[in-house]
Design goal:
This protein is an alpha+beta fold. It is 29% helix and 36% strand. Helix 3 runs antiparallel to helix 4. The N and C termini lie far apart (102 Å).
């Protein structure tokens, strides 16, 4: 055995000694950490955080009148592009035909040359007089033939012997001539274009001296006396309305909330809009109040039926996720997902929970709320 071999046991013992000391220090550190964690837990449990304060509303179940509101466009009942019924040169454009003018029914708009139509009337009158003369002659022949057979004591062999076919033709000729005269008079009358209803001239499409043909556009006239509204409701909202709907009145509101009057429901339901799959309701607005303008969007409020077993709450009680938070008798939070029956003027009406009320509802729920969380309720102000 060499000398190097004899010296090895001492360094090995020192290595083992350092290893044992390291393990002991590590164990002491671990024990110290465990003791510190247990102390922190005991201190946290000894001083729990205070329960957050929550403003609550006390609500009881009861009946509620459904009010269904929807925005719809107010449109004139009559909105027509007036077209010329005859051909000719425009001889006069009256002031009523200028764009922006308010006219009444019968106001003159255009004058179209009428010489040819006066000629047509004269010719139709002549044709009618000739037809009437022919009719008188036919009737006279029938009378003479009947008297002749009466004197002879004989019976006419057929209608031709009495000139009855000629009489019937003469009668038809008179009727035809009268119809032609009426048509000629109507064309002559159509050379003076007048407003068929009261309203505003929104566009003028023809000018002085222009030659127009039958069917050419002259101007656009929009009614200012009678309006109509076509409102569209979802099938759920339709079920909230009182039936039958025809004849009921609906309130009209401006976008700023001002009441503008009422509209009469003409008809509703029966079919769905092919694009929106919603129910259409047609309303009439006669003699509109000041401030009601065609083309405006108004809020139409329909009177609905009475709903039982409901809660009416501020919209702030409903979270974005559609939850409402209740506070039970032990001041613990409970979360429900109600069915919103209707919304009106910043409130929601929901079906009351199955439990017996009254209920304490969190007025402004927080995103940090958890089911079963203890809170400190206080009555909401206002």
């Amino acid at each position: 055995m060499t000398d190097a071999t004899k010296e090895n046991p001492a360094p090995r013992r020192r290595q083992w000694l350092w290893l044992v000391l390291s393990v002991a220090v590590l164990a002491a550190v671990v024990l110290l950490l465990f003791e510190t964690e247990d102390t922190a837990d005991v201190e946290a449990a000894a001083a729990p955080p205070p329960a957050p304060q929550v403003s609550v509303l006390t609500a009881a179940a009861g009946p509620a009148r459904a009010v269904v509101s929807v925005f719809a466009e107010l449109r004139p009942r009559w909105d027509a592009e007036l077209r010329s019924a005859v051909s000719g040169r425009i001889l006069m454009v009256h002031d009523g035909a200028l764009a922006g003018t308010r006219v009444t029914k019968g106001t003159p708009l255009f004058s179209i040359e009428k010489a040819r139509y006066e000629t047509a009337v004269a010719a139709a009158e002549l044709t009618l007089e000739q037809a009437r003369l022919t009719l008188l002659q036919a009737r006279n022949k029938v009378t003479v033939a009947e008297r002749q057979f009466a004197r002879d004591g004989a019976s006419p062999p057929n209608d031709l012997a009495l000139h009855l076919p000629q009489l019937r033709i003469a009668e038809h000729n008179v009727a035809s001539a009268e119809a032609q005269l009426q048509a000629a008079l109507q064309e002559l009358e159509d050379t003076a274009v007048t407003a068929p209803f009261s309203g505003f001239v929104t566009r003028r499409l023809a000018s002085l001296g222009q030659t127009v043909s039958a069917g050419d556009p002259l101007l656009q006239l929009s009614d200012d006396h009678q309006f109509e509204i076509t409102a569209q409701l979802s099938q759920e909202d339709w079920k909230l309305l009182e039936q039958p709907l025809s004849g009921q009145m609906a309130d009209l509101f401006h976008r700023d909330g001002r009441l503008l009057g009422q509209a009469r429901i003409r008809q509703g339901g029966g079919f769905l809009d092919p694009k929106t799959r919603q129910v259409r309701i047609f309303l009439d607005v006669a003699n509109p109040q000041d401030g009601v303008l065609a083309g405006d969007f108004l809020r139409v409020a329909f009177r609905g039926r009475v709903l039982s077993g409901t809660l009416t709450l501020p919209e702030s009680t409903l979270t974005r996720a559609g939850h409402v938070w209740l506070v039970d008798g032990d001041s613990l939070l409970q979360r429900i997902t109600p069915k919103v029956l209707l919304r009106h003027k910043g409130t929601i009406t929901i079906a009351a929970p199955v439990d017996t009320g009254p209920w304490r509802v969190a007025k402004t729920p927080l995103a940090s709320f958890l089911p079963g969380q203890r809170v400190s309720p206080k009555p909401a102000e206002g």
